[in-house]
Structure formats: C-alpha cells, structure tokens
Amino acid sequence: MRLDARTIEDWLRTTDPAALAELWGRADAVRHEQVGDAVHLRGLVEMANHCQRRCAYCGLHRDRPLARYRLTPREVLNAARRVRTAGYGTLVLQAGEDPGLTCGLVAELVRKIKAETGLAVTLSLGERDDATYAAWREAGADRYLLRFETADRRLYAELHPGEPDGYRRRLGRLLALRQAGYEVGSGVMVGLPGQTWTSLAAALQMFADLDLDMIGLGPWIPTPETPLIGRVAELGAPDDEQVTADVETATRVLALARLLCPRTNIPATTALAVLDPERGYATALTRGANVIMPNLTPARYRDDYALYPGKGETWRENSGGEERLYAMLGDLGRVVATGPGHSPRYLERGGGLTQEEKTCCRP
Ligand code: 5AD
Questions:
Q1: What is the pLDDT averaged over residues 206-226?
Q2: Which residues are bridge partners to 123 per DSSP?
Q3: What's 26's DSSP letter?
Q4: Residue 94 CA, ligand 1 centroid: distance in Å
C-alpha cells in the first residue's frame, strides 16, 4: 500500500483510541492475508561483541568497558546444531563490527554450517566491502541485516561521530547487499533523542522505497556508559516533535511497516520484550510481526552482548523461554512455521535480481 508522508505522520501522532484500534486491526489483517499465521523462528547467535565503531547509542561501543569475546568456529557450529535441533529454519549470526571476523573465516564457517545443517543463514556483521559481501553470499549466506538506524542524515552524523559521510555509506552498503543477491533487512530505532515524527515517517517511506525483505525495529533503550546518555537534552527535539521510545510507538511503526511492505518479514524484536517482558512479543505479533528471533548464544557470553540493559534476561532456556514462547503462540492462534521462511517479497521479486536487471533481462 502507498501512504503519503502526511498520512503516515498522522498515524504516528494520533491520540485517538479508535484510530489506533483501526491501525492494529488493519496491520493484523494484512499480515494474515499476505504472510499467513505461521511465525518464523530464527535462532540468534551473537558471535562476537568486539566492535571497532563508536555508535553513540550502543552498548558495544568500542570504548565501553566490557569483557570482549569472540566465539570459536567450533562454538558457532555447535550453536548452529542447537538451532537445527530446536527445529528452527534459520540461523542468524550477529556481531559487532569485528575485524577479527575476517572475510575468509566467516565464509568458511557459513560453508560448513550450510553443508552440515542446511539452515538458512542470516548475517548481521556490519558494513563490509563489496568483495566480502560477495564472498559470504557465494559461501551460501541467504540474508543480511543492516539497519540504517534513522532517516535523518544530520542525526545519523551526530550518532556516528567521525563519519561525516556515514549515512550515505550506510545506504550504499544496503544497495551493495541487494546487488550481491541477499534478502536485505534494515530498520531503525524508535525514539532516539532528536528523532522527529517527520523523520520517522520518512524512515517508513524508505522501507518501501528500499523494497526491504525484512524490517527490524525497536525502541531506543538508554544504555549506561554510552555517549548518548549525556546528550539527551542537547539532541532532543522540542516536546511535540520528539518521538517517544515506548512499545506503543514502536508498534505503531511496525504496523505501518506492515501496511507499506505487506509481504516482508517483520520480527517482534528483543527491545520490545525488554520494555514489556510479559507482553512485548505478543503485542508485536498482533500488530503486524511474523518472526521471532530466540537467542541461542551460549549462556556464558550472553550478558556480554550488552547492546542495552535487560537484553540478556529476555530469553533464558532455563526459565522456560522456549515453552513460554510456544504457549504464547498457541494463545494467539499462531503456528510455528516450518522451512527456511524466505521473504515472500524476495521470492516474488525473483531472487537477487534488482529491478534494473529484471527489466533489462526480460523481453
Ligand atoms: N537501544 C535499542 N536498540 C539498540 N541497538 C543498538 N543499541 C541500542 C539501544 N541502546 C540496535 C541498533 C543495531 C541493532 C543491532 O541493535 O539498531 O542496529
């Protein structure tokens, strides 16, 4: 569905309960019609918390005191086996932007995982050069996640100091991923200090313009010892312009993303579950989401992948995480998907072909 910027912003700002009820209902109906009732489970393995970047919001900021770890290839392979055993169709390998995860090391790992488990593999390893993206795709990686974080170029520069051209580069990487044939996922944080309703509406339009196969979004969560904590007042927009960082607002964005990109995959993200441990996932699933990414990182590293506080608590096998998840899906009348769970949008676009390639190669 096409929605103009004004209409999107009105939906984002409305305080009318009836309008909101309509938004939730429409998003849920479109989700049901376009991607069905099956919920795809992706096993998330956070393979390293080393990071060379200094993103102002992020708990993996390179100057932040943190016990740094990198899984060995054997540990990653074991985690992949656990994802397979759990019956999930996809393994997501995420890390900080860690130069120690070299092109060759990751390619070799992906090759082994594909050969042994047959899982779909999603990578989320930051900005890399064309050759690296190509090598990983060649090794068998199916998907790549790289959020653009905000649609506001100036705010992006504030949040990523020392990278004057960072925003353009980020969008360039998303195009490179598409060219390399990946299913491409991106998204934003909701409620970053300085993020306005107008820029959030622009982000939603970008989801549609980029024709994303996956859209990941969650509320910004203040993280101790990150530079952004000290800059909230300075960066913050005037009250009536500043986007709020809460579950309701983030799920408004999610619902609108579902309307704009009906056949894309949209996860109920961990950040939502951190703000609302009881109902965060369920709320997202009833407002447009069709994916959950249970955390299967080996337990002893989990607290060190400290993007934001409370993250390690949302998913613990020993507190019944898995059982609770299945019970919740049952309560919502949803079923667990089987198979790799490729984005329907990606498949109908004709795999990795860009619009240009498609038009030039068809009679
Ligand atoms: N709050 C919420 N999300 C965060 N991320 C990083 N730091 C935070 C935070 N403090 C998100 C970013 C990044 C993803 C891996 O985690 O959007 O792309």
A1: 97
A2: 93, 144
A3: H
A4: 12
